Amino acid sequence: MNEILKYTLMIVIILFTLTTIAAWLIWLERRMLALWQDRYGPNRAGPFGLFIVVADTIKLFFKEDWIPPFAEKAVFVFAPAIVAAAVLLSFVVVPFAPDILVADLDIGLLFFLAMSSLGVYSIVLGGWASNNKYSLLGALRGASQMISYEVFMGLSLMGVVMLSGSFRLTDIVMAQKDFWFVVTQPVAFVLFLTAGIAETHRLPFDIPEAESELVAGFHSEYSGMKFGMFFIGEYLGIILISAMVVTIFFGGWLGPVLPPVVWFTLKTFVFIIFFILLRASLPRPRYDQLMEYGWKIILPIALLNLLVTGGFTLLKN
Amino acid sequence: MISLLRSIGLIFLHMFRKRETIQYPEEKVVLHPRWRGRIVLTRDPDGGERCVGCYLCAAACPVDCISLQATEDEHGRRYPAFFRINFSRCIFCGYCEEACPTYAIQLTPDFEMGEYNRQNLVYEKEDLLIDSQGKYPGYNYYKVAGLSAGVKGKGEGANEEPPVDIRSLIP
Ligand code: SF4
Ligand code: SF4
Description:
The complex is a heterodimer. Chain A is mainly alpha-helical. Chain A is built from eleven helices and no strands. Chain B is built from five helices and five strands. The mean pLDDT of chain B is 87. The interface between A and B is medium-sized, with 12 and 14 residues.
């Protein structure tokens, strides 16, 4: 009984914290973008413009929640929920600290890969149900981007699994006691980060959205809070990928002096801000360039990395 | 690849640059003297209205937002009976100022004309007319015009000869 209560409480706290952070990330992103573009960004509502999030939310709630008459209604309504749900499910296995995690699955890494790729259903279904050419194009792009980048996202992590000898995320963190895996697996880190950006559809890889080509891509027809769900899902995705990068390559909660959660949060925020920096600085590649890049360059590198890591592990044994 | 890293680095360095934003309501924008903003009707140095109701500004206006009615006082001096500018249509192009032969209509450096009620953006003559000569101090149209309209007699204006007495033979 006590055990159940403890986990319920933990889930509620983690859920609440994550959604709150995801919401404030909108503010953080706008302020950081402004900083890098020599502007101020939102700075009027509340201290440092922090309340802009509240204002935005209220605005979204009062927008007309319109479902186009030509849309596939049930799927249209259902699709935005998937993205947030899938990302939140992945957080089940993220170890925020040794004692703050929901489930320490022994296939944690696989669970994360599976759940995070479920998110693409939201894009495909949303784009298809909108019954709009631009949305469908966005959805198609989302699907193919996901398929190609999912491949080496998994492959790049296999080196880490080889070194730590486990799919369990806590084991992976503990295996980094002496060296962070970014030292031993730098290539895998770069590949995973690239794939992670593609996974969250963030600039420069926001091909499914590509507002300069596809209006707003898969969510062209969405308005109000349904659009808000896509939005929150995207920010949750950023947190997830940053948290995973930290867990897998940067020693997770490990760090001197400060409590583990603080270390984890600090490291995660560094990567969140890096995500925003990427958005501020890089242009979007063309769609075919993205595909070519994925299959012809990154995939061979990921395989090579796997081979070399495997060879070294074999020699050491 | 290198160029991507370079641009990421360059953007990161922008963190330490000065911000360009002007925090508007607290910090005012520098408006230059020729800024084309709120339109005024000016007066000549003697306090008379400069506008002679020639309709040139209304004709020049590309959005047709000026409307006026000319009339005359007992000395034959023309002036507008009413003069109306609809600022919700005005595009502040300044063509009216260019068209005006008497420097009456002028654009001023002021853009803070926000209103809650659209109707309030229609300015009447009393809203437009100011007690100033604006950008052309010292200019009085009726002083240089050949016409006598209660400002000066015939031949008393600047650069003007007294009228020739056609009944006299004396040169
Ligand atoms: S500034 Fe241009 S638009 Fe405005 S009243 Fe004058 S001529 Fe018309
Ligand atoms: S403002 Fe100038 S152009 Fe317009 S009617 Fe008067 S004198 Fe003519």
